[in-house]
Sequence to fold (466 residues):
Amino acid sequence: MRNVLIALALLPVSAALPLAAHAEIVQHSQAETQALDLAKKAISLRSVAGPSNKTKDVAQLFKETLVDGGFSEKDITITPLDDTVYMTATWPGTDTALKPLVILGHMDVVEAKPSDWTRDPFTPVVENGYLFGRGATDMKLDDALIIASVLELKRQGYKPRRSIILAFSGDEETAMKTGEALAEKLQNAELVLNVDGTGGVLNEESNKPDYFMWGGAEKTYADYTLTVTNPGGHSSEPRPENAIYHMASVLIKLKNYHFKPDLNDITRAYFQQAGALKKGTVGQAMQSFAKNPADQAAIKVLSANYTTVGLIGTTCVATMINGGHALNALPQKVSANINCRIFPGHSKEEIGAELQHVIADPGVKLEIQEAGSVATPASPMRKDFSEAVVKAIHSVYPNLPVIPAMFAGATDNMWFRAHNVPSYTGSPIIMKTSDLFMHGLNERTPLSAIAPSINYFLSLIPDLSH
Fold:
């Protein structure tokens, strides 16, 4: 679900800011070639939920690649679940007393119809410096980069003290049951590095990186159904009570309600650091909010900006409405869906109760819908993780700003956080906002991201598994 994460990360940064220079990137030709080849093979497998789901074939491809690269077959498991599978591959560490490092990804992709695309979405194409195909960004190239980097470390003779477990879920884009199963199985992990989401932004004009982000928190997805019922009647005899007007008045109440702003260590660091990069009123408001989350002037500015309103607290918005049964009859029933993105630290039940309090109407029924998500707190600001990320990024982009962030979407990390496992996102891929087409048409990723990504992982993985 990489698109949700990156969408909130794309805070505009002034082109006048100093741009990071590239370091001398070490070429790892075998790993780079392997990553691209493996990504192309994986893209060609239509790992979409439903009939002819080929996620199990992606898992088998990854298994064969790892075994060919030196993994023991007994250390790799592929487990069926519904119409998909999940997979783990363990590289045993030298110190069995240490908890393992889990490197997490997913093998499934969002549906793509060939008739809508310029190129067939499940036929990988390398053209004009890009890899095209469903999963090129979300997230089969990331999976391939992890596998190629780990096998490169093996070739170099690296021996991890802490066991490294590669974990790939099979339905992250839909039911997310396999992510939940992986978290249950691997709840003894020391730390989770999820390479689904975050990353960096390339400047549209200079093609140099503006900044890099890693994620340490997620908001909880929740849907609530509101229902108003009425005896109805003939439309030629209007009555004071009308279910459509009743629901309309309720939705206006919710439109005008704002949840109390929230701040945690992750978002405080984000507003401080991103606010320093962002010029103008919004940047000033971000820094003011970081100092005082009750600053009403800052809240007003950030609430009016679509790129920041979702970061300052819980948001709820009406997304669907359904009502009436005939053109010539008064409505007997009207329902509306309220979609909420809940700030870490609050439960679905708590927010549902707050919505009910705002509505303050016994004639409105509120129900919480099961959405396959779980409320979790933010992960701690671990110094070992943040310093390792900064070191890895600066190995290829010296002095590039590295910013922690919270995102509105759901990833498999939430299942691990539910088991109190510190979980973070941090894909090394840096690209232009104009190239972001995950979940959309003609998905693509620049080939220029491959070599820096290999270097990033060759720094980060040893630092987290020593």
Observations:
- The domain at 220-369 is CATH 3.30.70.360 (Alpha-Beta Plaits).
- Residues 3-19 have pLDDT under 50 and may be disordered.
